[in-house]
Amino acid sequence: MSHAQLDPVYAPPFPEGALPVLRNPQLRKNVAHAIDVIQAKRGRLVAEKTDWQALRTSGSAIRAHALENLDYYLEQFEERCTAAGGHVHWATDAAEAREIILKLLREDNASEVIKIKTMTSAEIQLNPYLETAGVRVFETDLAEIILQLGQEEPSHIVVPALHINRSQVREIFARTMGLKSLSDDPHALTAAARTYLRQKFLAIPTAISGANFLIAETGGVAVVESEGNGRMCLTLPRTMITVAGIEKVLPRYQDLEVMLQVLARSATGERMNPYTSLWTGVVPGDGPQNFHVVLLDNGRSRMLRRPVERQTLKCIRCAACMNACPVYRQTGGHAYGSVYPGPIGAILTPQLMELKHAQTLPYASSLCGACYEVCPVKINIPEVLIELRAQVTDKERKQTLRFFDPLYLGLRMANLLFARAWRFHLAQQLGRIGLSLFTRKDGWIHSLPFLGAKWTQTRDLRGLPQQTFHEWWAARERGTK
Amino acid sequence: MSAAPTSRQRILASIRKATVHLHPAGSAQESPVLPRDYVRRGTMSREACLALMIERLREYDAEVVECSPDEIPAAIAAQLAKSGRKRFVAPEGLAAAWLADGVEWKIDRGLTTEEIEETEGVVTAAFCGVADSGTITLHHSAAEGRRIISLLPDWHLCVLRASQVVETLPEYFDRCTGPPALVTFISGPSATADIEMTRIKGVHGPRFLHVLLVRDAS
User: Fold this and answer.
1) Domains of chain B: residue spans and CATH
2) Considering only the top CATH level, what class is A4-302?
3) Are B32 and A236 within 8 A, CB to CB?
4) With 0-12 CB in 10 A as exposed, 13-18 as middle and 19+ as buried, what is A176?
5) CA closest to B188 among chain A residues
6) How far apart are CA A390 and CA A41, in angstroms?
7) Torsions phi, psi of B155, nearest 5?
8) Are A194 and A176 in contact (CB under 8 A)?
9) How many Cα neighbours within 13 Å face the side chain of A340?
């Protein structure tokens, strides 16, 4: 049961998935508050950067170049990471990645593992798999602990527990940590998590992380974080397993001079996140002496073929698009039925999965373009949404069932009418006569029968004018002669 | 004869099939000319740059104290005394003169995790400071120490020389002679905003970051 809600295969379509949040005022308030805070901070810090657009342009170009030459840079990463003492594994899909990780844990005799927040592990549903296999998983990011102990699902990729407020966190911690007198002050809640985890960090010798960036030039891995739980997991254990999507690679170490300037500002509205760690293979005497990277494809390589879809993989997971999205602001993250919510989720999920599992997602947008405007690597999300909508339509059109679908019937009719001028003019005249029956004196149509009622239920329709432009022009020409 | 392809081969083949039309000449281009029109070099005076570094650090709730190169040992001793802590850890390469009297020192020559966990504070050098974001970078040389010693103790005093402070992040990268194997970028003490976006200082990393800015000739 545990991840079914965010498994695109089982999740309900978007309009249905959005209902629980839309009907829950507390949840909407929590989401809106968190987003307003991040957006205001981001706005201030982006505005102070005089070269913001130049950074976006470079960020976009670096990511695009890496993707266009992905085989080259992945092989380079593998070679240099291996030379530095790391072990590189390749997984074509989620199942293979899970098996590789479990095998590594078995070799390490690990019955417990500590984890840094990683969306990629959520994508492959690693935690429930490991728990079933008898490995206890301890999340160490504060938000992830809240979710894990509260048996909740992430609703955002950077602040995954933003839908849960302090009194709900208090309730979860009091219940699961046995702290009856815990207050709902965020300081007290954070301190409780610190105490809870300290012993885990010191005692559990195996850790799993994601990666923000893989550096091809050096074989290094970078993790960007705030709390220090990442540094704990990267430093104390003897074994570290990093799972990373194949698209995470950057050509050079120096490329971080762009990425680190745009990432924190976009993600949390900070000039820089408190901690960024970079390590290269195994460094004798410092950190885990047994290091593995699992490179995950899981649908990514087939997205590289066409530029429209390929740009999706430029994503650096900052979540600025969901913070800017008017739809996400109303529905929160769970509605998207995937661990990747918001605009980036709406284009990523349908491409990673078979389209049929997520075909309502490309429509979960007003195409206002706010996501494109804030994206630090210039992913034209509306363009990809429209392309995916076209794919959904192409697929639907082929289904015989759709032949009698009123929408498709109407569109075929329109196609017929618009094809010839005379048909169009005839339709205009007939429409004028027909609609005049429903047009009130004020020139507006307030209600239509049958299918038309679906439109007039929520809005009025202006009645057709008595004369079209063509008719007016023709009459004018006649008059002047 | 033909063994089933490995996952590595399958993934690389799939990538090549999808991108082959992008480089018809064959191999990938490693040093492409990409647009880099962002600000590389700072324009501030030294004084303004240092003032910005201090301002940014203080915004992160880090404490900043300044001193001249001669005053380093005394300034460190004063900071240690003020902290009220007694047990400190130091990297192996830290100058002996910096190990102030009156407190207990453990020098990290392969200390165990338990030994480090027993200390209350740490003193390290730094590689570079970036004023624009108030960031300190550690490359974990002998004077900066292993990653674990600047992580477990709750109190971190970082000695940063004015000559190590640059204005922009790209200037830090220009100072790297080659890509380092280990790097930690530190921007203020450990923090979280996971509960209602309220910023809480100090989760797992050091809750207290002190910076001793040494006014050396730069």
Assistant:
1) 46-214 (3.40.50.10420)
2) alpha beta
3) no
4) middle
5) A274
6) 36
7) -135, 125
8) no
9) 26
pLDDT in tens, chain B (218 residues): 567 899 999 999 999 999 998 886 665 566 678 999 999 999 999 999 999 999 999 999 999 999 999 999 999 999 999 999 999 999 999 999 999 999 999 999 999 999 999 999 999 999 999 999 999 999 999 999 999 999 999 999 999 999 999 999 999 999 999 999 999 999 998 888 888 888 888 889 899 999 999 999 75
Residues of chain B in contact with residue A140, where contact means CB-CB under 8 angstroms, are 204
Confidence (pTM): 0.91
Tell me the domain boundaries of chain A: 4-302, 406-480
Of A49, A54, A62, nearest in space to A270 by CA: A49
Size (chain A), residues: 481
How far is A272 from chain B, CA to nearest CA, in Å?
6
Residues 6+ apart with CB under 8 A from B202: A190, A194, B154, B189, B190, B191, B208
Contact A301 B185 (CB under 8 A): no
SS3 of A354-373: the string is CHHHCCCHHHCCCCCCHHHH
* B45: contact with A, CB 8 A cutoff: no
CA distance A452 to chain B (A): 44
Q: Between B8, B37, B197, which is nearest A38 by CB?
A: B197
Residue A202's SS3 state is helix
Check residue B6 and report its DSSP letter: P
The partner residues of A88 in beta bridges, in order of sequence, read A293
Report which residue type is found at A367. L
Report how far residue A235's alpha carbon sits from residue B116's, in angstroms, rounded to the nearest whole number: 13
- Alpha helices, DSSP H, located in chain B: 7-19, 46-59, 72-83, 113-117, 169-175
Q: Count Cβ atoms below 10 Å from residue B178 Cβ, excluding itself.
A: 8
* ipTM score of complex: 0.95
